[in-house]
Design goal:
Blueprint: E1 2-5, H1 12-19, H2 23-29, E2 43-46, E3 56-63, H3 69-75, E4 81-89, E5 95-96, H4 103-111, E6 115-120, H5 131-138, H6 141-158, E7 162-165, H7 175-191, E8 195-200, H8 218-224, E9 227-230, H9 248-258, E10 267-272, E11 275-279, E12 290-292, H10 294-303, E13 309-311, E14 316-322, E15 328-332, H11 336-349, E16 353-357, H12 364-373, E17 375-376
Parallel strand pairs: 3-4, 3-16, 3-17, 4-6, 6-7, 7-8, 8-9, 9-10, 10-16
Antiparallel strand pairs: 1-2, 4-5, 11-12, 11-15, 13-14, 14-15
Helix pairs in contact: 6-7, 7-8, 11-12
Length: about 375
């Protein structure tokens, strides 16, 4: 795979002629819609010859049970694991299933030699995140035991292959109790033949302050689980100022710290599969960015005929545009170049693989590029 950057005056046909492939291949690989408008600075993935894979990696994608069936079908061949999001629980440790039936995802995963994984998150009966649930369960042995037992029961009944623990905003006071919960849970699920993983907030030091970080002991958690996902995204986020979602310079800092606590063969790099569109000027506490797909971002740039720029420090694409009402917007997203930078990091540090949040929207170029760079582990 090669990456071609669109220049002024380019069309799909003249690019195809220049690189020597059929235009239909460019259209398909990059999900271009008729009449195939392009934005200056747009990154196009170009298929050329045989893949040059370096080594085998694991790839994981998170999906809600209401994912589009065609999107899931096209994505599963590129996934080692499918993490179904999400099971919650009550204050007393009673397991709560997702609101949409998940059995069809499990069956689809197995049909594609992809391991289905149950994601456990502190969501209550109202479907909202609540870190009081974490405190209640990890600090009470009876509630902890109930939750673990019910998780194992569902893993067996539904045909899951593993468990992923995705707890965020853990209180500092719950740090050690949470580590013990994960250790006990890991022993229990492994005894039944299942694997266990954990999602980790992107720390850069052991004593990093903040509710996202203080409750997670990288070393203890990494020792307990089979593998861990570094949640290396959301620097640019819905309620924050416009910036790269996963700036490679910051992602690198997280990886470098994580490797001091957890072996590389246990670490997956978290990769976002989305972008944000902010209205300017940004007002802290007032502004809220719109979550968009990478494809929507490129289509917006083409529709407003504005160039896509690429920030070399963060290795991320972005652009600004003004609506007909005179409202200015700033957009940051992911493209083939930014994914290439992240795959390079996986290669450089010998990481286990990649975990994508999330796969609800198809961005075909990402999967084609991943498959070109690596062999993807399968069941």
């Amino acid at each position: 795979m090669e990456i071609y950057i669109v220049k002024q005056g380019d069309t799909v046909d003249n690019i195809a002629s220049e690189v020597g492939i059929d235009s239909s291949v460019i259209i398909y690989d990059n999900q271009l819609s008729y009449p195939y408008p392009l934005a200056v600075g747009q990154a196009l993935l170009i298929s050329e010859g045989e893949a040059s894979r370096s080594r085998m990696v694991h790839s994981n994608g998170y999906a809600y049970p209401f994912i589009n069936e065609d999107t899931l079908k096209e994505t599963l061949p590129f996934l080692s694991e499918l993490s179904v999001f999400s099971y919650g629980f009550t204050m007393q440790g009673e397991l709560l299933p997702p609101q949409t039936e998940d059995r069809w995802l499990i069956e689809a995963a197995w049909a594609n030699d992809t391991l289905p994984v149950l994601t456990l998150t502190p969501l209550g009966r109202d479907g909202n995140f609540n870190n009081n649930l974490i405190t209640s369960v990890v600090q009470n042995i009876s509630y902890r035991t109930r939750l673990i037992d019910e998780v194992i029961q569902v893993l067996k009944e539904k045909g899951y292959r593993g468990l992923d623990i995705d707890f965020e905003y853990i209180r500092a006071a719950d740090r050690d109790a949470f580590s013990e919960f994960v250790r006990v849970c890991a022993e229990a699920v492994r005894a039944e033949g299942f694997q266990i993983s954990i999602a980790l907030a992107p720390k850069v030091s052991a004593d990093q302050k903040g509710i996202l970080y203080e409750g997670k002991d990288y070393r203890a958690l990494g020792k307990a689980v089979d593998h861990a996902l570094l949640m290396t995204y959301e620097w640019g986020y819905m309620y924050g100022p416009p910036m790269a979602i996963a700036p490679i310079n910051e992602v690198r800092r997280v990886v470098e710290y994580a490797l001091t606590e957890i072996p590389a063969e246990k670490l997956d790099l978290g990769i976002p599969n989305y972008g944000y569109d902010w209205i300017l000027p940004f007002e802290q506490g007032m502004s809220k960015a719109k979550n968009i797909s990478n494809l929507q971002a490129v289509q917006t740039a083409a529709a407003y005929d504005v160039p896509i720029r690429f920030d070399e420090t963060t290795q991320s694409p972005y652009f600004t545009y003004i609506t007909k009402e005179g409202v200015q917007h700033e957009v940051w997203f992911e493209d083939a170049r930014s994914y290439q930078a992240k795959f390079n990091l996986i290669e450089e540090f010998g990481l286990r693989g990649a975990g994508f949040w999330q796969i609800m929207r198809l961005f075909r170029a990402n999967w084609l590029l991943l498959d070109d760079r690596f062999y993807i582990a399968k069941a």
